[in-house]
Write a structure and sequence with these properties.
single chain, 375 residues, alpha/beta, TIM Barrel, 15 helices, 10 strands, binds (3S,4R)-3-hydroxy-2-oxopiperidin-4-yl beta-D-xylopyranoside
């Protein structure tokens, strides 16, 4: 049992949704549930290990597989942490998602310099060749390019990163083809954020991403799916259910699978009671998953960590400043409460919102869809 005391109070209809955890609920509609993990935490925290074993089918290294972690200096490859995670995954019947091959924020400095100097694709080929085959079938899904969109820079909406600078916009198709050579069976995906709200920037992001996916499919690039990060943010208001639904339908209509890859919720109001905060987080997750899980092309959901204790979402100085004086000496808001388990590993309303959505939201029957206009 993961929940205890007050944390259980909001559970709805436990008998129907099952009491066996998130993965057990996900398989009802042929989906999976998973989470990002930090390898060190997994090693040192038995409670986390237990929760991961119980709740997850897919594990994602939170940062340990980034290029700058694996190869901090040219040719100096360090796979220790990912090898440990792989051993854990195999021992417990889990699969891994490869996060992430090309990401502007994880390119080692030496590689930036070398790419700029030599303009040589072999550096990418060599890197893919040293990482991808090593993990064989344990990694069923590779995020080949992470966060390629950045509206407001170029007419095609592509992010101006080192790969674009050196190889041009074609770097994405090239990277997919390169990955396919080493991973003939894995799902190859592009991963992106900022796709949920009816805000100008996010409207542009959806538009440019759809255009990119369309170009890649038309060119016959080996792209199997899209990862939507889903870092929800209560400071932005509510997600737009209609925009998300239309966007996912467009992606699905291209024959792509969709995975929610980094679900979590940044809170807006740290002064409310824990119960109220948990309710706001869970309501927003429900609103989001209601729409997302009705889309048949969605294969699974992973959260960006299981427990608030391990969340990358820290309460910032700005957050504290917004609520200056709200807390008595020594008190504070605690952790951001945007993950399924609290910092003591107890299930919160967000946990039950995910579990109920995975269990109850029935994917719409597949039909031939008319082409919908790009939002
Ligand atoms: C974050 C990790 O959670 C942090 O631990 C790390 O320091 C920085 O990156 N989108 C991504 C993830 O694709 O890799 C990011 O993870 C969160 C945003």
């Amino acid at each position: 049992m993961l929940c205890a005391g007050a944390a259980c109070a909001l559970r709805v209809d436990p008998a129907s949704a099952g009491d066996e955890g998130l993965e057990a609920a996900a398989v009802r509609w042929g989906r999976f549930f998973g989470s990002a993990v930090r390898v060190n935490d997994l090693k040192t925290e038995p409670n986390l290990r237990e929760a991961v074993i119980r709740e997850c089918a897919q594990l994602v290294p939170e940062f340990e597989m980034n290029w700058n972690e694996i190869e901090p200096a040219y040719g100096q490859l360090s796979f220790g942490k990912i090898d440990d995670l792989t051993a854990f995954a195999i021992a417990n019947g889990k699969n891994l998602r490869g996060h992430t091959l090309l990401w502007h924020l994880s390119v080692p400095e030496w590689a930036v310099e070398m790419l700029r100097e030599n303009q040589d694709w072999n550096l990418i080929a060599r890197y893919f060749g040293s990482v991808i085959p090593r993990y064989g079938d344990v990694i069923g899904m590779w995020e080949v390019v992470n966060e390629p969109i950045d509206p407001g820079q170029r007419v095609d909406g592509l992010r101006e990163n080192i790969f674009l600078e050196v190889f041009g916009p074609d770097y994405i198709a090239r990277a997919l083809a390169q990955a396919r050579r080493f991973a003939p069976k894995a799902q190859l995906v592009i991963n992106e954020y900022g796709l949920e709200y009816d805000l100008p920037d996010e409207r542009d992001r959806r538009y440019f991403l759809l255009k990119l996916l369309e170009r890649l499919k038309r060119a016959g690039a080996p792209l199997d799916g899209l990862g939507v990060q889903a870092h929800l943010d209560l400071r932005k208001g509510h997600i737009s259910q209609s925009a998300v639904a239309r966007f996912l339908q467009e992606v699905a209509a291209m024959g792509l699978s969709i995975t929610v890859t980094e679900l979590d919720v940044k809170e807006a109001d740290y002064v409310a009671t824990a119960e109220e905060r948990d309710r706001q987080v869970a309501d927003e997750v429900r609103r989001y998953l209601d729409v997302v899980l009705s889309e048949r092309a969605v294969t699974g959901v992973t959260t960006w960590g299981l427990s608030d204790l391990h969340s990358w979402l820290e309460i910032t100085k700005d957050d504290y400043a917004r609520f200056a004086g709200a807390w008595t000496d020594g008190a504070g808001p605690g952790f951001n409460r945007g993950l399924p388990l609290d910092s003591s590993m107890r299930a919160k309303p967000m946990y039950f919102a995910i579990r109920d959505a995975l269990w109850y939201v029935k994917p719409r029957p597949q039909k031939r869809r008319k082409k919908v206009a790009v939002p």
